[in-house]
Amino acid sequence: MTITEFQRRIREIYFDKDSRRGRDGTFRWLVEETGELARAMRKDDRSNLEEEFADVFAWLSSLATLEGIDVETACAKYSEGCPKCHATPCMCQEKIA
Amino acid sequence: MTITEFQRRIREIYFDKDSRRGRDGTFRWLVEETGELARAMRKDDRSNLEEEFADVFAWLSSLATLEGIDVETACAKYSEGCPKCHATPCMCQEKIA
To answer: How much is the ipTM here?
Structure first.
Protein backbone atom coordinates (compact mmCIF):
# COMPACT_ATOMS: atom_id res chain seq x y z
CA MET A 1 0.00 0.00 0.00
CA THR A 2 1.39 3.39 -0.90
CA ILE A 3 1.55 6.23 1.58
CA THR A 4 -0.90 8.14 -0.63
CA GLU A 5 -3.35 5.22 -0.63
CA PHE A 6 -3.25 5.06 3.16
CA GLN A 7 -3.79 8.82 3.52
CA ARG A 8 -6.71 8.58 1.08
CA ARG A 9 -8.22 5.65 2.97
CA ILE A 10 -8.02 7.51 6.27
CA ARG A 11 -9.58 10.53 4.58
CA GLU A 12 -12.47 8.39 3.31
CA ILE A 13 -13.09 6.98 6.77
CA TYR A 14 -12.56 10.06 8.93
CA PHE A 15 -12.54 13.30 6.92
CA ASP A 16 -16.03 14.34 7.95
CA LYS A 17 -15.22 14.02 11.65
CA ASP A 18 -11.71 15.40 11.21
CA SER A 19 -12.94 18.52 9.44
CA ARG A 20 -15.64 19.13 12.06
CA ARG A 21 -13.09 18.67 14.86
CA GLY A 22 -10.50 20.88 13.18
CA ARG A 23 -6.73 20.86 13.18
CA ASP A 24 -6.12 21.64 16.84
CA GLY A 25 -8.42 18.91 18.11
CA THR A 26 -6.90 16.51 15.59
CA PHE A 27 -3.39 17.44 16.75
CA ARG A 28 -4.55 16.70 20.31
CA TRP A 29 -5.70 13.24 19.18
CA LEU A 30 -2.32 12.66 17.50
CA VAL A 31 -0.56 13.42 20.77
CA GLU A 32 -3.02 11.27 22.74
CA GLU A 33 -2.30 8.31 20.43
CA THR A 34 1.44 8.96 20.78
CA GLY A 35 0.89 8.59 24.51
CA GLU A 36 -0.87 5.28 23.92
CA LEU A 37 2.13 4.20 21.85
CA ALA A 38 4.40 5.04 24.80
CA ARG A 39 2.25 2.91 27.09
CA ALA A 40 2.24 0.00 24.64
CA MET A 41 6.06 0.21 24.52
CA ARG A 42 6.18 0.04 28.31
CA LYS A 43 3.81 -2.93 28.54
CA ASP A 44 5.43 -4.68 25.56
CA ASP A 45 2.10 -6.05 24.31
CA ARG A 46 3.05 -6.88 20.71
CA SER A 47 -0.46 -6.84 19.28
CA ASN A 48 -1.35 -3.56 20.95
CA LEU A 49 2.03 -2.08 20.02
CA GLU A 50 1.39 -2.81 16.34
CA GLU A 51 -2.05 -1.20 16.56
CA GLU A 52 -0.69 1.94 18.18
CA PHE A 53 1.87 2.49 15.40
CA ALA A 54 -0.97 2.31 12.87
CA ASP A 55 -3.10 4.67 14.94
CA VAL A 56 -0.38 7.30 15.24
CA PHE A 57 0.16 7.16 11.49
CA ALA A 58 -3.59 7.38 10.90
CA TRP A 59 -3.90 10.52 13.03
CA LEU A 60 -0.81 12.02 11.38
CA SER A 61 -2.48 11.34 8.02
CA SER A 62 -5.72 12.95 9.17
CA LEU A 63 -3.85 16.05 10.30
CA ALA A 64 -1.89 16.22 7.04
CA THR A 65 -5.13 16.08 5.07
CA LEU A 66 -6.61 18.92 7.12
CA GLU A 67 -3.43 20.93 6.46
CA GLY A 68 -3.51 20.15 2.73
CA ILE A 69 -0.26 18.18 2.85
CA ASP A 70 0.35 15.03 0.79
CA VAL A 71 2.48 12.85 3.05
CA GLU A 72 4.06 10.82 0.26
CA THR A 73 5.16 13.98 -1.54
CA ALA A 74 6.57 15.28 1.72
CA CYS A 75 8.54 12.05 2.22
CA ALA A 76 10.50 12.68 -0.99
CA LYS A 77 12.95 14.67 1.15
CA TYR A 78 14.41 11.30 2.19
CA SER A 79 14.73 9.94 -1.35
CA GLU A 80 18.43 10.84 -1.69
CA GLY A 81 19.45 9.68 1.77
CA CYS A 82 19.70 11.91 4.83
CA PRO A 83 18.33 15.34 3.86
CA LYS A 84 21.21 17.01 5.73
CA CYS A 85 24.33 15.04 4.72
CA HIS A 86 22.82 13.35 1.62
CA ALA A 87 24.41 10.04 2.65
CA THR A 88 23.05 6.55 3.22
CA PRO A 89 23.72 5.69 5.96
CA CYS A 90 23.54 9.13 7.55
CA MET A 91 26.97 10.56 8.39
CA CYS A 92 25.74 13.56 10.39
CA GLN A 93 27.33 13.97 13.79
CA GLU A 94 24.00 14.96 15.29
CA LYS A 95 20.93 12.80 15.98
CA ILE A 96 22.99 10.21 17.83
CA ALA A 97 21.91 11.17 21.34
CA MET B 1 6.14 4.68 -2.60
CA THR B 2 4.78 2.02 -0.31
CA ILE B 3 4.82 2.38 3.46
CA THR B 4 7.20 -0.58 3.61
CA GLU B 5 9.58 1.07 1.12
CA PHE B 6 9.64 4.23 3.21
CA GLN B 7 10.29 2.32 6.44
CA ARG B 8 13.10 0.40 4.69
CA ARG B 9 14.61 3.62 3.35
CA ILE B 10 14.61 5.22 6.78
CA ARG B 11 16.16 2.05 8.19
CA GLU B 12 18.94 2.20 5.58
CA ILE B 13 19.68 5.82 6.41
CA TYR B 14 19.33 5.78 10.20
CA PHE B 15 19.29 2.27 11.66
CA ASP B 16 22.84 2.42 12.94
CA LYS B 17 22.20 5.64 14.86
CA ASP B 18 18.72 4.56 15.90
CA SER B 19 19.93 1.28 17.34
CA ARG B 20 22.77 3.00 19.24
CA ARG B 21 20.35 5.60 20.60
CA GLY B 22 17.75 3.02 21.53
CA ARG B 23 13.99 3.09 21.69
CA ASP B 24 13.56 5.63 24.50
CA GLY B 25 15.85 8.20 22.90
CA THR B 26 14.15 7.59 19.58
CA PHE B 27 10.73 8.07 21.14
CA ARG B 28 12.02 11.36 22.57
CA TRP B 29 13.03 12.43 19.04
CA LEU B 30 9.56 11.47 17.75
CA VAL B 31 7.99 13.74 20.36
CA GLU B 32 10.47 16.54 19.64
CA GLU B 33 9.57 16.39 15.94
CA THR B 34 5.88 16.38 16.83
CA GLY B 35 6.59 19.62 18.68
CA GLU B 36 8.25 21.03 15.57
CA LEU B 37 5.13 20.05 13.62
CA ALA B 38 3.02 21.99 16.11
CA ARG B 39 5.22 25.04 15.61
CA ALA B 40 5.05 24.76 11.83
CA MET B 41 1.23 24.62 12.11
CA ARG B 42 1.29 27.80 14.17
CA LYS B 43 3.59 29.65 11.78
CA ASP B 44 1.79 28.31 8.70
CA ASP B 45 5.02 28.02 6.71
CA ARG B 46 3.89 25.59 3.98
CA SER B 47 7.33 24.32 3.02
CA ASN B 48 8.38 23.76 6.61
CA LEU B 49 4.99 22.21 7.44
CA GLU B 50 5.44 19.62 4.67
CA GLU B 51 8.92 18.79 5.96
CA GLU B 52 7.71 18.31 9.51
CA PHE B 53 5.04 15.80 8.47
CA ALA B 54 7.76 13.78 6.72
CA ASP B 55 10.05 14.04 9.74
CA VAL B 56 7.39 12.81 12.18
CA PHE B 57 6.67 9.86 9.91
CA ALA B 58 10.40 9.16 9.57
CA TRP B 59 10.88 9.05 13.34
CA LEU B 60 7.77 6.92 13.74
CA SER B 61 9.25 4.53 11.17
CA SER B 62 12.60 4.46 13.00
CA LEU B 63 10.85 3.63 16.25
CA ALA B 64 8.74 0.91 14.60
CA THR B 65 11.88 -0.69 13.18
CA LEU B 66 13.52 -0.70 16.61
CA GLU B 67 10.37 -2.34 18.01
CA GLY B 68 10.26 -4.92 15.21
CA ILE B 69 6.96 -3.59 13.83
CA ASP B 70 6.17 -3.42 10.11
CA VAL B 71 4.11 -0.24 9.76
CA GLU B 72 2.36 -1.30 6.54
CA THR B 73 1.25 -4.58 8.11
CA ALA B 74 0.03 -2.65 11.14
CA CYS B 75 -2.00 -0.32 8.89
CA ALA B 76 -4.09 -3.24 7.63
CA LYS B 77 -6.39 -2.61 10.61
CA TYR B 78 -7.90 0.23 8.55
CA SER B 79 -8.41 -1.85 5.39
CA GLU B 80 -12.09 -2.56 6.10
CA GLY B 81 -12.98 0.95 7.23
CA CYS B 82 -13.03 2.16 10.80
CA PRO B 83 -11.64 -0.67 12.99
CA LYS B 84 -14.39 -0.06 15.57
CA CYS B 85 -17.59 0.35 13.52
CA HIS B 86 -16.26 -1.22 10.27
CA ALA B 87 -17.89 1.57 8.26
CA THR B 88 -16.60 4.05 5.68
CA PRO B 89 -17.14 6.79 6.60
CA CYS B 90 -16.81 6.08 10.30
CA MET B 91 -20.15 5.99 12.13
CA CYS B 92 -18.78 5.85 15.69
CA GLN B 93 -20.20 8.42 18.04
CA GLU B 94 -16.78 8.99 19.58
CA LYS B 95 -13.75 10.71 18.07
CA ILE B 96 -15.78 13.79 17.13
CA ALA B 97 -14.51 16.06 19.89
So the answer is: 0.96
